[in-house]
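Progress narrative, Year 2. Work on Ribosomal RNA large subunit methyltransferase J from Pseudoalteromonas piscicida advanced from sequence curation to structure prediction during this period.
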Amino acid sequence: MLSYRHSFHAGNPADVIKHLVLAEALSYMAKKDKPYDYVDTHSGAGFFELASSDAQKTQEYLQGIAKLWNYSGSVSAISDYVALIKSFNEGDKLSHYPGSPKVAEHFLRRQDNGWFFELHPKDLELLQQNTAHKKSLRVTGSDGFKGLLGLVPPASRRACVLMDPPYEIKSDYDVAVKSIIKAHKKFDSGVYMIWYPVVDRERIDAMESSLIESGVRNIQVFELATRADTQERGMTASGMMVINPPWTLKKTMDEVLPELVSLLAEDDGAFYRSIQLVEE
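Result:
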């Protein structure tokens, strides 16, 4: 049941869009001095060596962060993202990639709190090691779907949530949306982000329909497809559904996504989506 490990996929195009959006959201949260809570429902190990046997078996990072490593274009959000990843590496060599817990830690301040959930025993142990240096980073080896509901509303009255389950269990598509809707009912001003993979487009359509029908307002969707949709096996795209997005996010992603398509496309069918799924 707990077979998914992100070490095989660290730094791939899905990580690029996920962490770009995450960085933009957390940077925006930090513009106010008031503390906030960050909740990461499916954290993984938190930090990855790209020379590891897992990463080298798939080498997915070569299609993602490696293609951006020497980026010299004009889109500042991409430049900032690459600089962020470089801060976790020595010199100019790409050898490590941070997971979402480490990306979040970069932005979290002394007054902020980080809450991290992970069920895989080996990744949980690594996550605990990677976050042990800060008391404000709390790691729990329990179900993040349920854990989120116990953390909202936060005492800070400000929250940013990332939910990115592995989707190995097909019910995760439905559970992710339902969990976010439940959390939103308890605390409707939080920034909620759901990462999703496009393996079967119908599942993503169903997620979007559920969100539209939920009554939740102000939802944006950002998607990067490095290949055209297909009925064949494998992920062709991934994206982020964002509830209560920073007001700057849509404009930023409208600049970022076409640039990423041009840089990361694997075939002529590559495309992007940047839409306001539900109005404010």
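The mean pLDDT is 96. The longest strand covers residues 191-198.
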